[in-house]
Design brief:
Immunoglobulin-like; elongated; alpha+beta
């Protein structure tokens, strides 16, 4: 048991000292998030069909999308960010006419977006996989929530079973020693 603990501790210490990450990465990501520029991301965490290099770095949280051939909105929309966290986005918008609104949010299966309390069908931007929803005229509440998907639930259950099995093995080995 002592040998296993020592081996795991030494392996952990080695991996921490010989990693591929740069110690300044944490500060750079924090600055990007604080300035609302956003983290540029990595290929491993990109939604399917997206390339993180296509995502504009300096963009507002919300924007009206105007398709080619469509007229510009007669009146500028009024946006109010109510809440903007890693797992929840709430935006109030006042529109003179129905419009398509782009959120500064990539389309992952775990994001559920509702407009005025009803789950909204999601569209995407042409150049990258940002969330676009159709919003009626007048005042609307757009809510995006990061939910638990079945793969995350299954992964959590597997991890819990592994931890329980490890605990049982340690408990039975201690009983045998006693």
């Amino acid at each position: 048991m002592i040998a296993l603990t020592l081996a795991l501790s030494l392996t952990g210490a080695y991996l921490v000292k010989h990693t591929w990450w740069d110690t300044e990465d944490v500060n750079a990501v924090k600055e990007a998030m604080d300035s609302k520029a956003g983290f540029e991301g990595t290929d491993e965490y990109d939604p399917l069909g997206d390339d993180h290099t296509d995502v504009p770095q300096k963009q507002p949280e919300t924007k009206v999308i105007v398709e080619k051939g469509e007229p510009e909105p007669a009146q500028n929309p009024e946006f109010q960010i109510v809440r903007w966290t890693a797992e929840e986005r709430v935006v109030m918008v006042r529109l003179a006419a129905p419009a398509r609104i782009r959120l500064k949010l990539l389309q992952y299966p775990a994001w559920v977006v509702s407009v005025n309390g009803k789950v909204a069908p999601l569209h995407r931007t042409v150049s990258y996989d940002a969330v676009v929803v159709e919003v009626p005229s007048g005042e609307s509440r757009i809510e995006a929530r990061f939910t638990r998907t079945s793969d995350r639930t299954i992964g959590g259950c597997i991890s819990l079973m592994g931890a329980l099995a490890t605990g049982m093995l340690l408990w039975t080995s201690k009983r045998r020693e006693a």
